[in-house]
Specification:
This protein is α/β, with parallel strands linked by helices. It folds into 2 domains: 136 residues, Response regulator (Rossmann fold), CATH 3.40.50; 131 residues, Rossmann fold (3-Layer(aba) Sandwich). The strands form 2 sheets. A 6-stranded parallel beta sheet has the order 2-1-3-4-5-11, sandwiched between helices. A 6-stranded mixed beta sheet has the order 7-6-8-9-10-12, with helices on both faces. Strand 6, helix 6 and strand 7 form a beta-alpha-beta unit. The longest helix has 19 residues.
Length: 335
C-alpha cells in the first residue's frame, strides 16, 4: 500500500511539473536581408577631337560621331564631347590631355596634321585610352581603328574627268592642304597622276593652305591666277577654299576650270550653276558614324575591320540631281 501511495504521489508530481512547463516560445520572424539596389551603369564617355569647327567638313564628321553613338546606345547611356582644336596642334594635344584627365573611355580624333597626331596617340596609349582616327591619318603611333577616304582615288577621278574636257596639253595649278597631312599628299598625287596619264600636262605651281578656309582659297587662288593667267585648270583640296578661289576667278573674269575635293551646300549650288566643274565628295557623316561603330565594337569586345577607307562620290553638273539625296545622308548633315 505504501509502495502504491508512493508511486501515486510520484505520478502526481510528474503531472504537476508537466502542467507547469511553459510552451515553447514562437521563433521570432527572421527579417529579410536588405535588397541591394542595382548599380546604375555610368554612361560611356567619348571625346571627339576636331581640328576646327569653323570648317563645315568637320561639323559633318561631328554629327556622324555624336548621332551614331546616341542612336545606337541611347542618349542616356553615352556622353559625347567635341573639342575644337582651332587648327592648332598644341591645342589638340591639350584637349586630349583634358579628356584623359576627365576619364573619357575613348577618343575619336581628326588630327590637325599627321605629324602632330603622334603625340596625342602617345599620351592616350600611356593612359590606356583607345583611339579611333577619323580622316587625315597619323605618321606613326598606335590606334584602335582608322576611318579615312580614298583620297588618291577620289582626286584621280576628278583629274581624269577634268582632263577629258580640255583638248590639247593642259597647264594646271593646285591649292592644296598642308603637305604635312597624309590626305593632302594623296590628293595632290592622285590629281597629278591623272593629269599625267591623260597627256602632256604640266603642274605649273601649287600653294599650300594654312587655315584651309575661304580666305586661303581666295588669296592663294588669286596668286596663282595672277602668276599663271594661261593655266586652264585649278584643283582646290577643300570645299570652302574652292569657293574662295571661285570668287577670285570671277573678279578677274577668268575662264579657268575649277575642281575641288569635299562638298557643302554652296558648292552644290556652284556645281548646278556650272561654276565648279567637278567635285570629289567625301562622306564625312558616314565617316563619323563608322568611327562610332568601331567605338561600340571595342566596348562590346566585338571584332571589327580596323581600317576602313570610304570611296568619294564624283559630283558634276551632269549627275548632281541623281546623287543629291546620297550627299545629304552621308556627306552634308550637321544637325
Amino acid at each position: 500500500m505504501k509502495k502504491f501511495f508512493a508511486l501515486l504521489m510520484a505520478a502526481l508530481m510528474v503531472l504537476s511539473l508537466a502542467g507547469c512547463a511553459k510552451a515553447p516560445a514562437e521563433e521570432a520572424p527572421v527579417a529579410d536581408a536588405p535588397v541591394e539596389e542595382a548599380a546604375v551603369a555610368e554612361p560611356l564617355k567619348v571625346a571627339y577631337l576636331c581640328p576646327s569647327l569653323d570648317v563645315t567638313f568637320w561639323r559633318y564628321c561631328r554629327y556622324g560621331v555624336e548621332n551614331q553613338l546616341k542612336t545606337v546606345l541611347g542618349e542616356a547611356n553615352v556622353e559625347v564631347v567635341t573639342y575644337d582644336s582651332k587648327n592648332d596642334a598644341n591645342t589638340q594635344l591639350n584637349n586630349a590631355q583634358d579628356a584623359i584627365t576627365k576619364q573619357f573611355d575613348y577618343i575619336v580624333i581628326s588630327p590637325t596634321d599627321s605629324a602632330a597626331c603622334v603625340s596625342v596617340l602617345g599620351v592616350a596609349e600611356e593612359a590606356g585610352v583607345p583611339v579611333v582616327i577619323c580622316d587625315i591619318g597619323s605618321d606613326s603611333g598606335t590606334w584602335a581603328g582608322m576611318v579615312g577616304t580614298d583620297n588618291y582615288g577620289g582626286a584621280y577621278e576628278v583629274g581624269e574627268y577634268v582632263a577629258g574636257l580640255v583638248e590639247g596639253d593642259i597647264s594646271y595649278t593646285q591649292v592644296t592642304l598642308p603637305m604635312a597631312r597624309i590626305n593632302g599628299q594623296k590628293r595632290k598625287a592622285g590629281f597629278d597622276d591623272a593629269m599625267a596619264a591623260a597627256g602632256n600636262n604640266t603642274l605649273v605651281d601649287f600653294k599650300q593652305m594654312e587655315n584651309v578656309d575661304r580666305s586661303d582659297g581666295y588669296n592663294y587662288g588669286s596668286d596663282l591666277l595672277t602668276a599663271y593667267p594661261d593655266a586652264q585648270v585649278v584643283f582646290v583640296h577643300s570645299d570652302d577654299p574652292a569657293l574662295g578661289t571661285l570668287a577670285a576667278a570671277e573678279e578677274v573674269n577668268s575662264g579657268v576650270i575649277i575642281s575641288c575635293f569635299d562638298i557643302n551646300m554652296e558648292v552644290v549650288e556652284a556645281v548646278k550653276a556650272g561654276k565648279i566643274t567637278a567635285v570629289g565628295a567625301q562622306q564625312p557623316v558616314l565617316m563619323g558614324r563608322t568611327c562610332s561603330d568601331m567605338v561600340i565594337a571595342l566596348e562590346k569586345g566585338e571584332a571589327f575591320e580596323a581600317e576602313v577607307y570610304l570611296p568619294t562620290l564624283l559630283v558634276t553638273s551632269e549627275n548632281i540631281e541623281e546623287v543629291y539625296d546620297t550627299l545629304i545622308a552621308t556627306a552634308m548633315t550637321e544637325e
